[in-house]
Amino acid sequence: MTLAVALFAAAVGLIPQSASSDVRVAGDGRLRKPVPQEKKAAMPKFGNLGPGVRYVLTTRDFETDRADGKFDRSVGFAMDYLRRMKPAYSFDNVETAEEMPAWRAKVRAKLKELLQVGDDMKRDFRLLSSEDRDGYRLSRYEFYPEEALAVPILVLEPSCALQTGAKVPAVVCLPGSGASLDSLAGEPDDSANRFPLRNRQAWWYVKMGMVAVALENPATARNGERGVSHFVTQAQFARIMSIAGRSGWGFMVEHVLQTVEFLKAHPLVDQRRIGVSALSLGCIPALYSAVLSDDISALVYNDFVTSWAIRAMAQTEGDGQCGVGRKIDARRPFGFYRWFDDEPDLMAAIAPRPMILSEGGPWKRHIEKVKRAYALAGASDKLRVAYYARFAEPSARKFEDVDLATVTGLDADGYLLRANVDAKEHSFHPDVNLPWLAETFFGKAELPEGLMRQVKQAASERPLW
Predict the structure, then answer these.
(1) For residue range 278-326, what is the model confidence (pLDDT) as tens digits?
(2) Which pTM value belongs to this model?
(3) CATH code, 301
(4) CB-based burial of residue 9 (10 Å sphere; 0-12 exposed, 13-18 middle, 19+ buried)?
(5) What is the distance between the alpha carbons of residues 142 and 128, in angstroms, rounded to a whole number?
(6) Residues spanned by the domain of 136
């Protein structure tokens, strides 16, 4: 381990600090005495470190002053290289409806390759326990997607279907960054969940009369470590998987697809009506799974639409976890942008299947692209775009004519403003998603009166922090 890696790892808590106050971990892993104060002044400055050293990049670091336009600093070259790239399978290259099937097939094949998703969708699910709840049965399962791995899930089955044996729709649910599968089912839990009422996706769906399955993000909650931040466990999981040559996102996508196979064999599930619903972090494996599988007939994408590449081009200022130079998503496979723009191109590949985008996003190159795909596929009515209440009126979306691929110098807040994001209200939105999915799967958007009252109550829920 190099000194730089060791210092970074210690900073984020990946290396335990010594229990003794008079020793510290050196870059080579050995314990050494700290340097006395009187000797520190004589220590040489390493690399670019010195007085006023920065630990975050700014817009200036991505620019060049050379008359020939060349970059003599690496990060500027890397940004310029990204800006000049044109994804080979971008939907921008598709002009007619007749071209869409072949384009979609290329996107699907390349995504499967990048994620390293195999063809063996195992159905090795084991029932551990079942309990009756008000209007449904909650069952705890494990499944075993590969050697030495046990994955917990919850299955919620509506009482009406259990009593009649009628086949009903089913939904696979994925939570946000730090939340647990128990939170999806409305069960007691202590995971990171700002909106317990809003975010209980599986509970909402079973109350609508659907079979609902709750999954969990890798290295999180039950899949994480007690007493350790999910940010640390997720980062360490992604790092180890990367070292092993595995895709963290592909790992999760396989679990979603295997759960879909489980539902296809479920006696109460209508195979023609299986959806995937996700919040925030869970939206990525949900989107990828929908691109790869036609068995997924509807997608609830409860996050704002963003292009990860365009965001990197535009957000070149700021500090903090989301600041430039501070956040690296090691779960994402290398080379995505060589082939397609994640997320807009992949969303375009969902057309003509029903999809709702519950938290809006920027217009140009983002929602604009997805809407064009659905229009070209003759399925404009299958796409629903909703916005945060703050940006619900078109007049509130003041940057719709701004192409963020041509912008630079934004910090995180500036980018989110131009993406029509009200971050403090980021949550699952049952008042938006439930009527849409009811119309998609049942043919009408109306909800039972009692359930509608609970939806309205949840819509006004205050965040826990």
Answers:
(1) 999 999 999 999 999 999 999 999 999 999 999 989 999 876 545 565 5
(2) 0.87
(3) 3.40.50.1820
(4) middle
(5) 7
(6) 102-459
